[in-house]
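Field log, afternoon session.

UNIT: design team B
ACTIVITY: writing a sequence onto a fixed backbone
BACKBONE:
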């Protein structure tokens, strides 16, 4: 059961607004707070991280049948979403540019979950993933199994994760509103979107990875 009652969530919103204002991003005070979170299990998080790491390889040219077999051997098939299962029915040359780009963007969502599992120390909205990210994860091209991720032991606290999600939610509003006004946000909307998506999924056990509610 979550301990983040409405008053706590309002305090988190107010604190995040102060941080956002101090950085010069625009915000609106009446952007709603989220419902009380329902945190996913650590096992689910590791499963999601694992398949994301595997699928990212496809965007760099790895054969889909090789990735599908690796996922099967590691017992991760149940962690795939419907869309991801469909990707794995195609040959590399059958994939659309949209599908390949979508998998490449998984890098940012995975980085957010690496922060959640304390593999990363910060989740700086102004920075793309670091060059060191690949060295921190199983290297499928080199034949690694999934032990690096399977050996992780804990997540950050619910309040830390919720606070970060709320922060990215409000940053996402800023990015979207700038785009609507034909202006350019000072941070990359793709980074914000993908990291928020991963955190939203984590905090709502009933959500579907392929259809995360991302309204602002």
């Amino acid at each position: 059961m979550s301990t983040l009652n409405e008053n706590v969530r309002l305090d988190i919103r107010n604190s995040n607004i102060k941080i956002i204002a101090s950085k010069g991003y625009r915000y609106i005070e009446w952007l709603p707070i989220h419902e009380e979170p329902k945190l996913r299990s650590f096992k689910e998080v590791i499963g999601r991280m694992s398949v994301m790491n595997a699928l990212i390889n496809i965007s760099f040219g790895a054969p889909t049948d090789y990735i599908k077999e690796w996922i099967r051997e590691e017992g991760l098939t149940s962690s795939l979403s419907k869309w991801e299962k469909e990707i794995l029915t195609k040959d590399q040359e059958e994939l659309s540019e949209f599908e390949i780009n979508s998998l490449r963007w998984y890098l940012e969502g995975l980085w957010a979950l690496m922060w959640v599992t304390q593999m990363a120390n910060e989740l700086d909205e102004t920075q793309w993933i670091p060059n060191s990210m690949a060295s921190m994860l199983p290297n499928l091209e080199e034949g690694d199994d999934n032990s690096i991720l399977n050996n992780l032991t804990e997540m950050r606290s619910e309040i830390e994760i919720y606070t970060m999600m709320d922060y990215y939610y409000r940053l996402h509003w800023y990015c979207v509103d700038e785009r609507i006004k034909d202006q350019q946000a000072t941070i990359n909307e793709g980074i914000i979107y993908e990291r928020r998506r991963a955190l939203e999924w984590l905090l709502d056990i009933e959500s579907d990875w392929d259809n995360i509610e991302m309204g602002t």
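LOG NOTE: The helical segments are 6-22, 42-59, 64-73, 82-87, 97-116, 147-150, 158-180, 189-202.
NEXT ACTIVITY: expression trials, pending approval
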